[in-house]
Design brief:
The structure is a single chain. This protein is an alpha/beta fold and 455 residues long. The chain is 55% helix and 10% strand. It has 20 helices and eight strands. The strands form two sheets. Strands 5-6-7-4-8 form a five-stranded parallel sheet, with helices on both faces. The chain is elongated. It binds adenosine-5'-diphosphate (ADP) and magnesium ion (MG).
Length: 455
């Protein structure tokens, strides 16, 4: 099979698996570009489409192509707009994403302590961090005006530094002349001590310290709990820095691993100021958010790991995002050095887990369900709510969720563009029926047998 046949067959399958509207919006204009042995380029018409495909349908696309070709195909996207091309658009999607997050030129980062990759664009929002994110964006749009100071607290590895840095990066992007300083509380203290020591000989060093921290438009101090309980000089200097900025309506953002009231060793003159601004926290992300975060990391790293594998890792690690990311990197590196494919089985072994979920191909699952109930795929995905279709549809929802590691949202797309709440409802419905002795129970167990699912 040559590349163009492979691409045709892939489109054919996607057309049967996805709803008409979804297929039309994202794949109907996609074209095959340059190809090489196990590498293909797919040309799409806009960044948006490339972005959506890579976020929502990448796993499906990759697994379909790999299955048809019986190979591990590296997929690259190329954006070809109808309008005049610029060089940037010649880059593959993933370069493009990275480029986007680095549009602020390098030199203005000097001395800011900011890391360009920590942006709002690369920060995934979910129920656990929605409020903090909303405040952070408001702060970045109107520094010093709306919420000042902004005190952000959350457990370790839950995105405090990322979100705080995103504020700084966004401010600089809008106004490259703004003076933004990011420092950890520890750096603040160390530089203060250095300044005090040097100041004994040359007075200007102490001034340099004050210039750095007091002549800013936005001051970001990370892990403020570090200052609590430190020597008087540190707390005193911090208090004056804080005051100087606050009085001149400059933005202050602080993070901590605990809420203000638990910072008992911090000078009350400082803590009492927090109440004049806003305090927000972030919680551990739920499993859908963890999946979204890990998929984003994969894309930024230009890795081609299928969604169901990424989702499996995301579901397995609940502690915090740093650990999630760390394990993800380790798994990728290990699999590469061992020359192994990154499968769910491989990940499960790495994470020391037993998998009780066999993994099934989406397309095959839908075909099997339709064959069992003797209905057409189009009816399965269609709008009709007659019982002959509703039952197979709900059974598909249940089986897809349980045995393909596909998130509710994507199942909704696969089953004709339905809302994720509909999918959740359908899945629950079938689960309830299974606990009773109904026909559905018999159906499900027959379909599972056909699919070789023993669990
Ligand atoms: P903290 O400062 O709270 O200990 P970090 O900000 O260092 O945590 O986050 C740890 C890692 O997790 C970073 O690599 C960061 O990019 C990532 N991370 C945290 N939250 C998110 C999010 N909502 N979206 C994407 N990445 C995130
Ligand atoms: Mg941090």
């Amino acid at each position: 099979m040559n590349h163009s046949e492979l691409w045709k067959a892939t489109l054919g399958e996607l057309e049967t698996v996805l709803s008409k509207a979804v297929f039309k919006s994202f794949f109907s204009h996609a074209q095959l570009g340059k190809t090489e042995n196990n590498r293909i380029e797919i040309i799409v018409g806009s960044e948006y489409i490339a972005d959506q495909i890579s976020k929502k349908f990448y796993g499906l696309l990759k697994s379909t192509i790999d299955r048809i070709s019986k190979d591990n195909i590296d997929i690259q996207f190329k954006i070809e707009k109808k309008e005049v091309q610029t060089n940037v658009e010649d880059l593959p999607l993933f370069n493009d994403i990275q480029k986007k997050s680095q549009t602020v030129s390098k030199d203005i980062f000097e001395d800011t302590g900011l890391i360009p990759k920590y942006t709002f664009e690369s920060f995934i929002v979910g129920p656990s961090n929605r409020l903090a994110h909303a405040i952070a964006t408001a702060v970045s749009e109107n520094p010093g005006k709306v919420y000042n100071p902004f005190f952000l607290h959350a457990g370790v590895g839950l995105g405090k530094t990322h979100l705080m840095q995103a504020i700084g990066n966004a401010v600089l992007k809008q106004n490259p002349k703004a003076k933004v300083v990011y420092a950890t509380a520890e750096t603040f203290m160390n530089e203060l001590i250095e300044a005090i020591q040097a100041g004994r000989n040359k007075n200007y060093t102490a001034n340099k310290f004050r210039d750095k921290f007091r002549k800013t438009d936005v001051l970001l101090i990370d892990d403020i709990q570090f200052i609590a309980g430190r020597g008087e000089a540190t707390q005193e200097e911090f208090f004056h820095t804080f005051n100087a900025l606050y009085m001149s309506q400059k933005q202050i953002v602080l993070t901590s691993d605990r809420p203000p009231k638990e910072l008992s060793k911090l000078d009350v003159r400082i803590t009492s100021r927090f109440s004049s601004g806003i305090v927000a926290d972030m919680q551990k992300p739920d499993s859908e958010t963890r999946s979204a975060i890990l998929r984003e990391k994969r894309d930024l790293m230009r890795e081609t790991i299928p969604n169901h594998v990424v989702d499996f890792i995301a579901q397995s690690i609940e502690t915090n995002i740093r650990e999630l990311e760390g394990n993800f990197l380790q798994i990728i590196t290990r699999a590469k050095t061992e020359g192994q494919d990154l499968t769910i089985e491989y990940c499960a072994k790495f994470l020391g887990q037993n998998i009780d979920k066999p993994v099934v191909n989406v397309n095959e699952l839908l075909k099997t369900v339709c064959a069992y109930y003797n209905i057409k795929i189009t009816d399965l995905k269609g709008k009709s709510r007659v019982k002959e279709y509703v039952v197979p549809r709900q059974v598909s929802m249940y089986l897809l969720k349980k045995f393909t590691n596909t998130p509710y949202m994507v199942i909704g797309d696969i089953l004709g563009g339905r809302d994720h709440t509909t999918i959740m409802h359908g899945t629950e419905k079938v689960e309830q029926e299974l606990s009773l002795d109904t026909k559905i129970k018999v159906d499900v167990s027959n379909i599972k047998r056909t699919l070789n699912i023993s669990a």
